[in-house]
Amino acid sequence: MVNRERLVNEFLSLVKIESLSKQEGKVAQYLSKVLESLGIDYHTDNAGEEIGGETGNLIAGIPATDPEYPTLLFSSHMDTVGPVKGIKPIVDGDTIRSDGTTILGSDDKSGIAAILECLRILAEKRIPHGRIEIVFDVAEEIGLLGAKYLDSSKLTAKMAYVLDDSDLGKITNRAPTANRMVYEIRGIEKHAGMEPEKGISAIEVASHAIAAMKLGRLDDETTANIGTIEGGSATNIVANYVKITAEARSHSEAKLKAQSEHMKQAFLDQIGKFSKVVDGQKIAPTFLEDRHLDFSIMNVPESSPTFQLAKRAGKRIRIDLAAKTAGGGTDGNIYNLHGIETVVIGTGMTNVHTVKECIRIQDMVDCTRLLLAIIEESVAFGSK
Q1: Is 140 a known active-site residue?
Q2: Are strands 58-62 and 72-77 parallel, antiparallel or unpaired?
Q3: Which residue range is the domain that position 325 belongs to?
Q4: What does the alpha-carbon distance between residue 375 and residue 384 come to, in Å, rounded to a whole number?
Q5: CATH number, domain at 258?
Q6: pTM of the full predicted structure?
Q7: Are 75 and 133 in contact (CB under 8 A)?
Q8: Considering its fold, how many domains does the chain have in total?
Q9: Catalytic site residue 79?
Q10: Taking a C-beta distance cutoff of 8 angstroms, is the pair 368, 5 a contact?
Q11: What is residue 152's predicted lDDT score, i.e. its pLDDT?
């Protein structure tokens, strides 16, 4: 039932619209027109105002053909990473790729295109279905902000599918929790050539602290990373300030807490080591930490209705879907936190966040077929 040509043309139109995080206004306008042409009611929440973006999340609802059927939520995000200036998608046989100077934008416009094609088919073929709720959210790429500020008051779905993964043969049902940290160290500024011994370099303190940390892949559940370092003002000045951003992730809350404390303690240990007496006075660097929970654990059992519905839908179209444990967070983490049982399904996006990004057309077709099969299976489930 999937109109391959229409699906491809929709995807090509979407990826040509630049939509960096907080700059999704144009793609939201495009999607609004599509929804209006299909006679689908929608509204935009105030997430854009909350995060300082051009637009909020686009939330749509399609009434059920029979209220006895379950309500389903499908979601994809509108924003992309860069570079995005002048995206020129190239159709090469069954593959769509960028021209090598920008990203393609299949993350996550392949998901949007699949959802739109699914909605068109529902209307054209008059396929029975429960209420269908759609969320096209903003600023996913910079911390799941759209989902965090989503106005979910009008959502009624208890089962949701986020289209935001590469592997079409997997159902992501587990994802980690994560902390984001900002560390600030203040040293003592002095001339680097005339009296460096009277100063304390914030950069040196930070370097020793980072060298003492356990980072990277810590075990099969936990990772940690130093992301950015900013500091200093000139080569002839002992640096009096440095700012470091970092993260830790784990499928265990206890391990996340332990790793976050370990990273903080590494800085505190160096603060004491770099304290000294200069001209009869004790001087010492200072340290500040800003730590916050970025997202909570997602752990949906394979026995859950949402997982099993997708599994049965896969069998309907002869795709054997297996469980997947992810190393990153998605909007699914946030939806689950708010009581909407959610798993993540793939669209076929490949080499995302790079200029080598590409996607197979057949994968987008199969993703759309999977959505339709999920709806059909939900009807069979609801009628029992």
Answers
A1: yes
A2: unpaired
A3: 4-175+297-382
A4: 15
A5: 3.30.70.360
A6: 0.92
A7: no
A8: 2
A9: yes
A10: no
A11: 84
358-383 pLDDT, tens digit each: 999 999 999 999 999 999 999 987 64
Q: List Cα–Cα distances, 166 to 92, 118, 344, in angstroms.
A: 19, 19, 10
Q: Do 182 and 271 lie in a common domain?
A: yes
What is the rounded average pLDDT of the residues 130-152?
96
Of 331, 355, 277, residue with least CA distance to 145: 331
List, for residues 208-243, the tens digit of each pLDDT value: 999 999 999 999 999 999 999 999 999 999 999 999
DSSP classification of residue 289: E
Same domain, 271 and 312: no
The answer to whether residues 372 and 336 belong to one domain is yes
Instruction: Pick the catalytic residue from 18, 45, 79, 331.
Output: 79
| 305 in the same domain as 201 | no
Asked if residue 151 and residue 197 are part of one domain, the reply reads no
- Catalytic site residue from 10, 24, 107, 140: 140
On the question of pLDDT at 384 being above 60, the answer is: no
d(CA 142, CA 79): 9
Domain identity same for 215 and 165: no
Residues 296-346 pLDDT 10s: 999 999 999 999 999 999 999 999 999 999 999 999 999 999 899 999 999
Write out pLDDT tens, residues 234-285: 999 999 999 999 999 999 999 999 999 999 999 999 998 999 999 999 999 9
Residue type, position 384, single letter: K
Strand partners, 184: 243, 288
Structure tokens at 174: 């587990």
Name the residue among 102, 109, 168 with its Cα closest to residue 357. 102
